[in-house]
Write a structure and sequence with these properties.
- The protein contains nine helices and eleven strands.
- The chain is of the alpha+beta class and 307 residues long.
- Strands 1, 2, 3, 4, 5, 6 and 7 form a seven-stranded mixed beta sheet that branches. Strands 9-10-8-11 form a four-stranded antiparallel beta sheet.
């Protein structure tokens, strides 16, 4: 049976979320072990996923960007065929881990694989942003870029970016709060405050912290990275895009030896990220968080992940 299969990975924004919308720098890390797979076969314009199973034209709002992207792909190639789409995902939705961008990139790859065609990076990015604009209102593009990347990205809208040569000994720990993030609402909340000097100053400081964090990552300065993460979280909380539960998780991480901890992604839920120096600290922290009801956690060795 003819089919096309596309893959994309999750992402974690380490620094610069929200500020990146306003031409500030951000750092994002591809989470290569957590992936999205889209399989395209001949069908009757149906979809099968954990979220929804049925006709594409009746898909829920969460898939609106995906459906629009699929229609755009077909219109671009004057394609009158009908398809069945199957989605298999390890990336939790609405957690700030790039699930919507990964879904878009996996669909694009599946579509072109089905038709035995290739697509340039620039074309793929542009197509992915169609869905991201519907999903998030004013996307910076960092999710689209990082979910199609295999190396950490230092990013500014444009896109202007470079890959980071990671040289940091330590562990990045990601814990799911269990609360769905509200990226669109959080982005709008910041936009509504951008006329305030305090908000503009916070965005400028977040930009500077991203630049400092890049230096820390390339100079094996985990202590410095942790300090910049803590400062960034405080600013993001002041902007009103964190969540009380995530703030509590941050304090748990710091109390268990984390050098830094913060929200990640759109905010108002989603995941909390933290950095630890030693593996035994990581293990104790994850065990502790399970006793508090947080059972979904991922760990990345920063030194080994991108060698």
């Amino acid at each position: 049976m003819k089919q096309g299969v596309g893959h994309a990975n999750a992402k974690i924004i380490l620094m610069g979320e929200h500020a990146v919308v306003y031409d500030a720098y951000a750092i994002a890390i591809p989470f290569l072990t957590t992936i999205m797979v889209v399989t395209l076969t001949k069908g009757e314009n149906t979809i099968k996923s954990e979220l929804y199973q049925g006709n594409l034209d009746q898909a829920p709002k969460l898939l609106a960007g995906f459906v629009e992207l699929f229609e755009t792909l077909k219109a671009k190639h004057q394609d009158t065929h009908t398809y069945h789409v199957e989605i298999q995902s390890e990336i939790p939705m609405q957690r700030g881990m790039g699930s919507s961008a990964a879904l878009s990139n996996a669909l694009i790859d599946a579509y072109y694989a089905y038709h035995h065609q290739t697509i340039s990076f620039a074309e793929k990015f542009e197509l992915s942003m169609i869905a991201e604009t519907i999903n998030h209102g004013r996307p910076s593009g960092i999710d689209s870029l990082t979910t199609m990347s295999t190396l950490p990205v230092y990013f500014k809208k444009g896109p202007h970016y470079e890959h980071i040569a990671m040289a940091c000994d330590g562990y990045l720990v990601v814990v799911d709060s269990g609360i769905q993030g509200e990226t669109l609402e959080a982005v709008q909340h910041v936009a509504n405050q951008m006329h305030l000097e305090t908000t503009q100053a916070a965005i400028a400081t977040l930009d500077a912290l991203s630049q400092q964090a890049k230096v820390a990552l390339t100079h094996n300065d985990l202590t410095g990275l942790g300090r910049y993460m803590n400062q960034a979280h405080a600013l993001l909380d002041t902007l009103g895009v964190s969540h009380p539960i995530v703030n509590e998780m941050v304090q748990h991480a710091l109390s268990k030896g984390a050098l830094g901890a913060k929200m990640s992604g759109g905010g108002r839920g989603g995941v909390m990220i933290s950095v630890f120096k030693e593996q035994d600290q990581v293990e104790r922290f994850i065990t502790f968080m399970k006793t508090r009801g947080y059972h979904k956690a991922w760990v990345m060795n920063l030194r080994e992940a991108f060698q």
